[in-house]
From TrEMBL:
Protein name: Uncharacterized protein
The organism's taxonomic lineage, starting at the top: Eukaryota, Sar, Stramenopiles, Oomycota, Saprolegniomycetes
SUPFAM superfamilies linked to this entry: S-adenosyl-L-methionine-dependent methyltransferases
Length: 332
């Protein structure tokens, strides 16, 4: 790394005991070859420094407080990458409190705190995670758990959840992990995205999260509505939920609405006009890419029961998000 790009501020160094007392997450940047011990704590996650570009979507959100565990050889570059605003000019800074060096004293402290895993110790499930899914997932998950409880007593095909425009796959992985932890082991989860690398990256993500047996990926241009309709119609008897986050194609929403079977859940999260009708943010910049107030509620007014229609602010820039969930009701 160019030395001229080094941060001008210094991140404090702390002990493992100080991290433990702080009660915050710890991002363990050690390489696999450096893992002479592992942690049992569910607030410690190892993402090797060499996998930084491939797995940056697994890093904490910009509003989450955390610390770094660094190897002595790479600590300067690691600290600089997380704290130097010049390296991430369009992003809010990470809330990194301090860093801990991996030294014999750190290992001794981990043993004293009884947070060192014995060799081959199974990890508790769901696995520890630093990343945060879209806040829509916190509203959607309880409804899917309720649906899973109902489906468990019905001789129906394995329910399928679709994530349209899945991107890195954090939201669909979150649902897969949490539902499997609740015993919904027959459920299937499908990420759909146009990205050609999605097959490799999201399936690798699913394997790391131990949900690969339940996960599949479909590469698809979601603007090709006939293809989307055929995909959903093939699952007419088992589609349980179709959702999407921060992605808007109005004709696509109509296709999903018309294809969902009785009991099927539609969930969407996207930027929406504030109550005063004044958009004050740089992105999205075009009105067609912003939901009108209660546009989704109007679109799903017939044949659906609206379970959620709220407006929240995103954690990045305070932009209003419409969090919307509806379920197709039984006719009559």
């Amino acid at each position: 790394m160019d030395s001229t790009a080094k941060a001008t501020t210094t991140l404090p160094r702390a002990t493992l005991e100080a991290w433990h007392a702080a009660g915050i997450f710890l991002l363990d940047l050690r390489e696999q070859s450096e893992l002479t011990y592992e942690f049992t704590s569910n607030v410690v996650v190892n993402i090797p420094w060499s996998e930084q570009k491939l797995r940056s979507h697994e890093y904490p959100s910009r509003s989450t407080r955390f610390a770094l565990l660094c190897s002595p050889a790479n600590a300067d570059d690691q600290v600089d990458w997380f704290t130097n605003a010049d390296l991430h000019p369009t992003k809010h800074p990470w809330q990194v409190e301090f860093y801990v060096l991996d030294t014999p004293a750190t290992r001794a402290a981990a043993l004293k705190l009884a947070i060192v895993a014995a060799p081959d110790t199974p990890r508790p499930y769901p696995l520890a995670r630093l990343w945060t899914p879209n806040s829509l997932m916190t509203h959607l998950l309880p409804r899917l758990i309720q649906a899973a409880t109902t489906a468990a007593s019905a001789p129906t095909p394995s329910p399928v959840v679709f994530d349209l425009g899945c991107g890195s796959g954090r939201d669909i992985m979150f649902l897969a992990e949490e539902l499997q932890a609740q015993g919904a082991t027959s459920w299937r989860f499908c990420g759909v995205d146009h990205n050609k690398t999605g097959m490799a990256t999201t399936t690798a993500f699913a394997r790391r999260r131990r949900v690969h047996d339940a996960y599949s990926f479909v590469q698809m241009d979601l603007r090709k509505l006939d293809a989307v309709q055929r995909m959903l119609e093939r699952h007419q008897s088992d589609v349980q939920c179709v959702f999407g986050c921060r992605f808007l194609h109005r004709d696509l929403l109509t296709v999903v609405r018309d294809v969902l079977p009785v009991g099927g859940i539609f969930a969407w999260s996207h930027f929406a006009m504030p109550a005063d009708g004044q958009w004050r943010w740089q992105h999205p910049s075009k009105p067609r890419d912003i939901l009108r107030r209660d546009e989704l509620a109007t679109l799903f007014a017939q044949d659906f029961d609206v379970l959620l229609n709220v407006f929240e602010s995103d954690s990045d820039h305070g932009r209003p998000l419409n969090q919307f969930i509806a379920v197709r009701r039984t006719p009559g």
